[in-house]
């Protein structure tokens, strides 16, 4: 190799070495830059503590909003809401080599609301149930069952011990909420006496009905628990109707001699038979539009000037008792919870049921006869 070729060869070697050196230096610089590069994240900061790191400012702010709204009732107007310690979204930078654990919005919210869990032993009190205990400790019934699999919850007694976790949220959210609700106004029951109603008998003269009122309250809560309630407005939407009960003081004189009355037993039976085929209506007293068993009997006898209670049980004490074998037309044939009018031949006319209405049947159709009462001869 001549001198010219040697010089040329050395130039290539030097040039190659230079290129290699540049490449190594570039890689080193890139690695160094990468090692010292930083990335931006957003953190939810509670007081001085970072509770969760998220990818964006909007995600961090969404976490804060959802934590606050967790304790707001649906339909409520929020008048004020604060957190202690305060929550805020803060920009954070981390070296690329030390990336933080990034949370999703849902996980961050759950973590803040749950905070720390402390295992406790709960002693069951009178009136407790899995539902009331779950509400008290802000856990689900399923969680209570899972933590106490050995326990038979169908036989839960005061003094029993349950394993529970007490949740301590990372923040206390205090909210003032304006809540409007409709509440029931319970009707009042009024009792009065009347000699026109038989003694030991009560009738409902007027049915009661509940009213309604609209109430607007300012409710202060701490983590969902009510600590103060102020009624701002109460407006009656519907007034309640009183329930009026009449207590009887009257005494029925049902003599053994029917001459005092406008009719006799046979006349009573014949009059009662006029309404066969008419409907049975529970609580009814109409001989044409419908009556129940005692309503039918009292309406028939009312026609003859005799007042009776609308009560099959009370009717068992009227008049004088005779045997079934001695029964005459017009007598009351009394059963447990039922009554009819004897018409002779072992038959009674009575308001049987909704299917048969007012009909004639044998005395044994309803069941055993308790007593037969003679009101008129």
TrEMBL record:
Entry-linked SUPFAM superfamilies = Cysteine proteinases, LysM domain
Key words, A-Z: Hydrolase, Membrane, Protease, Repeat, Signal, Thiol protease, Transmembrane, Transmembrane helix
Q: Which residues form the NlpC/P60 domain?
A: 262-377
Taxonomically, which superkingdom?
A: Bacteria
Specify the G5 domain's residue ranges: 171-251
Annotated transmembrane regions: 12-30
A Pfam family it matches: G5
GO biological process, alphabetically ordered: proteolysis
Q: Which residues form the signal peptide?
A: none
According to the entry, every stretch annotated as the LysM domain falls at: 120-164
Q: Care to name a GO molecular-function term for this sequence?
A: cysteine-type peptidase activity
Family assignment?
Answer: Belongs to the peptidase C40 family.
Name it: LysM peptidoglycan-binding domain-containing protein
Record the organism.
Emergencia timonensis
